[in-house]
């Protein structure tokens, strides 16, 4: 379980606080958003001002909520470009970002700038796409973060620990919404077996 360092109180008019970046990564159904919400709720208990953002592309469940699969929700602001986050973060102490893999590459510099200005930045996102390849900005975010937590799902085929998102419907698109029907979590072995079957089917 991740125990957060203490975030010092910001003195008015002075930037004397150290910020940092946390990344929560993993496959689909691994509990990334639940872990993000857990950390943000703890920050709220500590009376810190929290702002949460998600890419406007991700409107699967509700327009303005970060909603995880077990329906614990927290209010968030959908944004179209990573630059908007800097403008909207304002005086917040903690900035949460969900579904970070859907953001443009600029999100890395945005997170660094927020942390440099004394904010705690918590980023959740898929670390691999449906082909098992590193997903967009996530490898760079993992590299610049102080703290990285990889959470795991359970393989829907064999019950082992899973870190891959296996796509059940044929599509070449990187972004495919409506994930609960379209994907399942798989372990390395079951993921590779599934991918080999798809390749055989295509050729
Ligand atoms: Zn398996």
From TrEMBL:
<keyword id="KW-0808">Transferase</keyword>
<dbReference type="InterPro" id="IPR020633">
    <property type="entry name" value="Thymidine_kinase_CS"/>
</dbReference>
<keyword id="KW-0547">Nucleotide-binding</keyword>
<keyword id="KW-0963">Cytoplasm</keyword>
<dbReference type="InterPro" id="IPR027417">
    <property type="entry name" value="P-loop_NTPase"/>
</dbReference>
<keyword id="KW-0237">DNA synthesis</keyword>
<dbReference type="GO" id="GO:0008270">
    <property type="term" value="F:zinc ion binding"/>
</dbReference>
<dbReference type="InterPro" id="IPR001267">
    <property type="entry name" value="Thymidine_kinase"/>
</dbReference>
<dbReference type="GO" id="GO:0046104">
    <property type="term" value="P:thymidine metabolic process"/>
</dbReference>
<feature type="binding site">
    <location>
        <position position="187"/>
    </location>
    <ligand>
        <name>Zn(2+)</name>
    </ligand>
</feature>
<comment type="similarity">
    <text>Belongs to the thymidine kinase family.</text>
</comment>
<dbReference type="GO" id="GO:0004797">
    <property type="term" value="F:thymidine kinase activity"/>
</dbReference>
<keyword id="KW-0067">ATP-binding</keyword>
<feature type="binding site">
    <location>
        <position position="155"/>
    </location>
    <ligand>
        <name>Zn(2+)</name>
    </ligand>
</feature>
<comment type="subunit">
    <text>Homotetramer.</text>
</comment>
<dbReference type="GO" id="GO:0005524">
    <property type="term" value="F:ATP binding"/>
</dbReference>
<dbReference type="GO" id="GO:0071897">
    <property type="term" value="P:DNA biosynthetic process"/>
</dbReference>
<dbReference type="Pfam" id="PF00265">
    <property type="entry name" value="TK"/>
</dbReference>
<feature type="binding site">
    <location>
        <begin position="175"/>
        <end position="178"/>
    </location>
    <ligand>
        <name>substrate</name>
    </ligand>
</feature>
<keyword id="KW-0418">Kinase</keyword>
<feature type="binding site">
    <location>
        <begin position="26"/>
        <end position="33"/>
    </location>
    <ligand>
        <name>ATP</name>
    </ligand>
</feature>
<feature type="binding site">
    <location>
        <position position="158"/>
    </location>
    <ligand>
        <name>Zn(2+)</name>
    </ligand>
</feature>
<feature type="binding site">
    <location>
        <begin position="98"/>
        <end position="101"/>
    </location>
    <ligand>
        <name>ATP</name>
    </ligand>
</feature>
<keyword id="KW-0479">Metal-binding</keyword>
<feature type="binding site">
    <location>
        <position position="183"/>
    </location>
    <ligand>
        <name>substrate</name>
    </ligand>
</feature>
<feature type="active site" description="Proton acceptor">
    <location>
        <position position="99"/>
    </location>
</feature>
<protein>
    <recommendedName>
        <fullName>Thymidine kinase</fullName>
        <ecNumber>2.7.1.21</ecNumber>
    </recommendedName>
</protein>
<keyword id="KW-0862">Zinc</keyword>
<dbReference type="GO" id="GO:0005829">
    <property type="term" value="C:cytosol"/>
</dbReference>
<feature type="binding site">
    <location>
        <position position="190"/>
    </location>
    <ligand>
        <name>Zn(2+)</name>
    </ligand>
</feature>
């Amino acid at each position: 379980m991740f125990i957060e360092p203490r975030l010092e109180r910001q003195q008015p008019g002075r930037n004397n606080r150290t910020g940092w970046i946390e990344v929560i990564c993993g496959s689909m159904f691994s509990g990334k958003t639940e872990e993000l919400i857990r950390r943000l709720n703890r920050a709220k208990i500590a009376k810190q001002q929290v702002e949460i953002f998600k890419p406007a592309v991700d409107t699967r469940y509700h327009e303005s909520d970060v909603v995880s699969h077990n329906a614990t929700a927290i209010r968030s602001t959908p944004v179209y470009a990573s630059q908007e986050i800097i403008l909207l973060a304002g005086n917040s102490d903690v900035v949460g970002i969900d579904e970070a893999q859907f953001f443009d590459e600029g999100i890395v510099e945005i997170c660094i700038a927020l942390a440099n200005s004394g904010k705690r930045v918590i980023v959740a996102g898929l670390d691999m796409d449906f082909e098992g390849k590193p997903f967009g900005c996530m490898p760079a975010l993992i590299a610049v973060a102080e703290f990285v937590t990889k959470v795991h799902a359970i393989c829907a085929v064999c019950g082992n620990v899973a870190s891959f998102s296996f796509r059940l419907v044929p599509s070449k698109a990187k972004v495919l919404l409506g994930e609960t029907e379209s994907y399942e979590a798989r372990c390395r072995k079951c993921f590779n077996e599934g991918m080999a079957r798809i390749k055989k089917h295509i050729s």
